[in-house]
Amino acid sequence: MNDRESRENAAMFNDIAGSYDFLNHLLSLNFDKGWRRKAIRSIASGKPRRILDVATGTADMAIAAIKLNPDQITGVDASPGMLEVGRKKIKDRGLDERISLIEAVCESLPFEESSFDAAVVAFGVRNFTDPQLGLDEIYRVLSPGGKLAILEFSLPDQKWLLTLYRFYFHHLLPLIGKWFSHDMAAYRYLPDSVEAFPKGPAFVEMLNHAGFAGSKYKPLTFGICGLYTGIKKQP
After folding, report:
1. pLDDT for 69
2. Which of 6, 62, 105, 107 could cross-link with 53 by S-S, CB 3.0 to 4.6 Å?
3. How far is 79 from 69, CA to CA, in rounded Å?
4. Do 46 and 145 meet the contact criterion of CB atoms below 8 Å apart?
């Protein structure tokens, strides 16, 4: 994805920001809420005080991470429209002093090295302009021993389920998306990006290449979502 495509991608998410949360829950049959809880639990043992939520979107993951009682959660995203929705949700919950949102691209995070104790990404790596560079940046801003948890859609392994899944993703999902958000293109982009994502071992190898230790992949809900975890190496 080049700079022009990156800008177009951000504009697309700006357009659907108002209906994004509703459609996310509807289209995942609310599984996305449970997936986020699993991701948050995977970083809990480190008792992180400073958490970074990359590609935060409307801040669902940042809000979920408040259960770990950190001192500060920082979310970053390239879409100002999504961030506007996220800030309203944070304000409505009285979390303004504990969660802050910043407009920034994931490949150039505006933070010093070792700024965070843990990092999370929920369904955002597919939208990185350069996924490997984005992972490198997350590694840079994590403290040694800091944990990373990534949720990402993927294709199920079972042939019968894969057939149903592709029919739903490529035919039904765009129609539902157009009905609620009036933007069919955005919901055609989703299945195409899922198909292109380097699932399982291939993405674990990208985590290893960024420097993460103990990188693992755990399929969730028949493999339609994957939980990827890693730890920044100690010096």
Report:
1. 97
2. 62
3. 27
4. yes
How far apart are alpha carbons 102 and 205 in whole angstroms?
Answer: 29
Inter-residue contact 211 to 235 (CB < 8 Å): no
What's the first-to-final CA gap in the chain, in angstroms? Answer: 34
CA–CA distance, 82 with 100 (Å, rounded to integer): 14
Length of the chain: 235
Output the pTM of the full model: 0.90
**What's the pLDDT tens digit per position in 93-102?**
999 999 999 9
Tell me the domains of the chain and their CATH numbers.
Answer: 3-232 (3.40.50.150)
128 CB-near residues (< 8 Å, 6+ apart): 1, 55, 106, 107, 134
| Residue 156 phi, psi (nearest 5) | -65, 155
Question: Helices 184-196 and 173-181, interaxial angle, to 10°?
Answer: 140
What residues of the chain score a pLDDT lower than 50? Answer: 1-2
